[in-house]
Amino acid sequence: MINSPHSHTTPSDCTTALLPTSTPSFPYWDIDSPSHLNPKICVTTSTSAGLEQILPWMYYHKAIGVSTFFLFVEGKAASPAVSNVLDSIHGVKVIYRTKELEEQQAKSRIWNETWLSSFFYKPCNYELFVKQSLNMEMAIVMARDASVDWIIHLDTDELIHPAGAREYSLRQLLHDVPGNVDMVIFPNYESSVERDDIKEPFSEVSMFKRNYDHLPKDTYFGMYKEATRGNPNYFLTYGNGKSAARIQDHLRPNGAHRWHNYMKTPNEIKMDEAAVLHYTYAKFSDLTSRRDRCGCKPTKEDVKRCFMLEFDRAAFIIASTATEEEMLNWYREHIVWADKQLNIKLLRKGILTRINAPMAIIESLRKAEVFTKAIAGAQTKISKDKFLSSIEKSNSTRSISSRKIEISHATARRVLEYSEKSFMTAAAVPPLSPPGIGNQEIGLISQHIES
Fold first, then answer.
1. 62 near 41, Cβ under 8 Å?
2. Which residues, by range, are in coiled-coil regions (predicted)?
3. Half-sphere exposure of 127 (CA within 13 A, CB side)
C-alpha cells in the first residue's frame, strides 16, 4: 500500500465486487459512519457547485468511510436551495462566506508569514488558492473540536480511489497507516473523457490517465508524446496529488495540495495504489464556467497573472475569444479521447486505466434514491421548522392540529434537475504539472535503455 521507489503496482478497482446487479443493494457500508468506527475522517472543501455535483461527491465519500464534511460555500452552493439541503445532512457543517468570516480570516497568522505570501493579492486562481488555505486553517480547528483523526482537502470534482484497501474503504486504508506517519499523499489520476457531451462525469467517465508516481519511468517518458497529444503537459492541470493529514498540534495547511506543521517537518508516505481521481474539464461547459469566474484579459501576458498552469491559460483564452463551434472543435482536439486505437495502446501500456468502482457506487446511490431523499428530507425539515417557529411566535391558545409534511420524490428530483442549471519556512505547494521531457530526463532514459 505504501510507495517505494521501485514499486509499480497496477491499481485495483474492485470492479467485479461493486458493479450494480439487477437488484442493487446499497449501502455496501453505512453512509452515516457510526461513531464507534475508527479512524474518523473529515473532508473539507471550498465550493460554489450545485447539488447535482456536491451530493454524489459527498455520499460517495460517505460510502468509503468519511464521517464529517466542512463545506465552505459561495455562489450557487450558498443559495438556500442548495445550502438548506447540505445543512440537513448528518455529519455536514456548512460555512458561509460572510463578512464575519472574512473579518475573522483577515486576522489569521498566515498573513504575517511568508510561506503563502507569493500568492497574496493576485486574481483568479491565486485568490482561490489563498482562500482555500485560509479555509483549511479553520477546518483544522473544527476537525479537532469534532475529535476527527484525519483531514483531507478535496475539490468537488475529485474522488478518493482507495485502491489496495480491503472492502474499498478509505477508513481501512488510513487505519493501516503506521502511527508515526503524519501525512499521506494520494497521487492524482486525470479523467480522460471519450465524448464531448458528458453531463455527469462521476457517472459517465471510467477512463483515467495514471500519475507519474504510479508508472515505470521508461513507460512514462517513452509514451510521453502520445499521452500528451500536443497539450502543454502530460496532464491538463495539476499532477502533484492531494494529501491527508493526521490531526495533531501545530498542524497547518501548505496550500490546497499539502499540509505542514509549524514545529516539525511532517513524516509523509505516498500511496502506490490509492489515488485521487480528478475529473478536470470533463464537461464542455467547464470551459466557459472557468472563464466566467475570472475577469482577466484573454491575452498570453495577462492570463499569467490569473492561472498557474499553462493549459488553464490556453483554455481561458479560447473560451474568451472563440465562437461556440470553434470552442467545441478545440475541446474535441485537446480534451476528448476519441482515437480508440490510441486509447487501446495506452491502456495496454498502463498509461491509461479503467476505474469503474466510483461509477458503480454512485449509480447504486442514485438507484437507492439517496440524493433525492436528501433533498426531500431537507424540504420536510424546513417545513417543520417553519411550522414550529410559527407556534413559538404565536401567543394564541387555540389548538393547532399536527400534520405530517410529505415531499414527493418527484419534487425532489425536480429540485436536483433545477440545480443543474442553475517546517515553518516551507513554502506552500502550488498545483504543479507532472514532469516534462527535458534533456536530463532524456539522458536518464537513454542510459536506462542502453543498460
1. no
2. none
3. 10
Q: List the domain range (segments joined by +) for residue 106.
A: 41-372
Beta pairing, strands 41-47 & 158-161: unpaired
Q: Provide the CB-side half-sphere exposure for 190 (13 A, CA).
A: 22
Please state, in angstroms and rounded to a whole number, the distance separating the CA atoms of residues 307 and 325: 24
Integer-rounded Cα radius of gyration of the chain: 23
Q: Which three cell numbers stand for residue 34?
A: 457510526
Distance (Å, whole) CA 359 – CA 11: 16
What single-letter DSSP state applies at residue 309?
A: S
Q: Which amino acid is at 55?
A: L
Tens of pLDDT, residues 32-48? 656 668 999 999 999 99
Q: Which of 275, 62, 266, 76 is nearest to 180 (CA)?
A: 266
Per the structure, the count of domains in the chain is 1
Q: Tell me if 298 is assigned to some domain.
A: yes
Find, among 312, 350, 340, the residue nearest to 124 by Cα. 312
Give the pLDDT of residue 446.
38
Looking up cell 505504501 gives 2
Per-residue pLDDT tens for 141-192?
Answer: 999 999 999 999 999 999 999 999 988 999 999 999 999 999 999 999 999 9
- Bridge-partner residues for 41, per DSSP? 150
Quick: pLDDT tens for 68-122. 999 999 999 999 999 999 999 999 999 999 999 999 999 999 999 999 999 999 9
Give the integer Cα–Cα distance in Å for 286 and 312.
Answer: 11
Q: Is residue 36 part of a domain?
A: no
Comparison of pLDDT for 327 and 449, the residue scoring more: 327
Whether 3 maps to a domain, the answer reads: no
Write the DSSP string, 87-149. HTSTTEEEEE--HHHHHHHHT-GGGGSSTTGGGTT--THHHHHHHHHHHHHHHHHHHHHTT-S
What is the four-CA torsion angle of 303, 128, 238, 253, rounded to 10 degrees? 140
Task: Confirm if 66 and 57 have CB atoms less than 8 A apart.
Answer: no
Is residue 219 within 8 Å of 441, Cβ to Cβ?
no
How many other C-beta atoms can be found within 10 angstroms of the C-beta atom of residue 367? 13
Q: Which secondary-structure segment (H or E) carries 292?
A: helix 285-292
